[in-house]
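User: Could you check the structure of this?
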Amino acid sequence: MLEGVDLILTLAGFGVGIVVGLTGMGGGALMTPILVLAFGVPPLAAVSSDLAASAVMKPFGGWVHARRGTVNWSLVRWLCLGSVPSAFCGVLLARLLPQGAQVQHAVQLALAVALVLAAAGMIAKAYLGRRRPALDRPAAIRVRPLPTVLLGALGGLVVGLTSVGSGSLMIVVLLMLYPALRPNDLVGTDLVQAVPLVASAALGHVFFGDLHLDLAATILIGSIPGVLIGSRLSSRAPAGVVRAGLVAILLASSAKLFGAPNVAVLTAAGVAVVGAVVALVVTRSRRPEPVAGSRIELSAGKLTA
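Assistant: Sure, the predicted structure tokens are below.
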């Protein structure tokens, strides 16, 4: 690649990294079309390189959420138990199917509908949360192992077949099974479970020689700092801010799967990132300042003691 192209691709990786860190999804729906349509990369090479970059990028975002305590490790374990082997099998199955393109198109349309329904569900939850504020408080999550493993396996199979949905589809799965999960925990759990999932799918592509290490490395130069910034925002932001970002990226990803122009999808993703950052800044600026007198009294107490 030319140096100028490398710089643009790195900046694109940075933007996608912020979206992934902020919402846990959007990588496959954004980065792969950018590689194919903007840089002329062959589809298989774009898919495999994006998966490889995601396998390296997402642990950084997951690490930030793990430090903030916004990861449900029990859910991660049960999801990965089903998704990791099925993702690898999905890559092999995509190679064996005689009409793989038609199958992928049908699955992508189904996923697009699921994303729209998930966005509608989050909007409804936010409306109910305004009427009953207790819904947004941390709630104990009772893990259901068998449904979690089965839906994780279904999600992994879709990722292996279409290379889309490692974040967005699992968000839908988690919303279906655990609607009481807070948005911050939803993003953190989704980011961490996606690490072994995309690694398994990427490994399947490596076996077929589709991976381009130079592409993956160029993406990672920008996406790693991007995902760190996005993860810090989502792990610290109020639940309403994260929920707004999730809804925006869900709708943008579904629009892409329905065949919307890339300009519209990328614009929606950019608006989601900028809107979330602005909302976070405004929210923090409205927080009450700590009372200085309490510190003075504490200091005086220590002095008199």
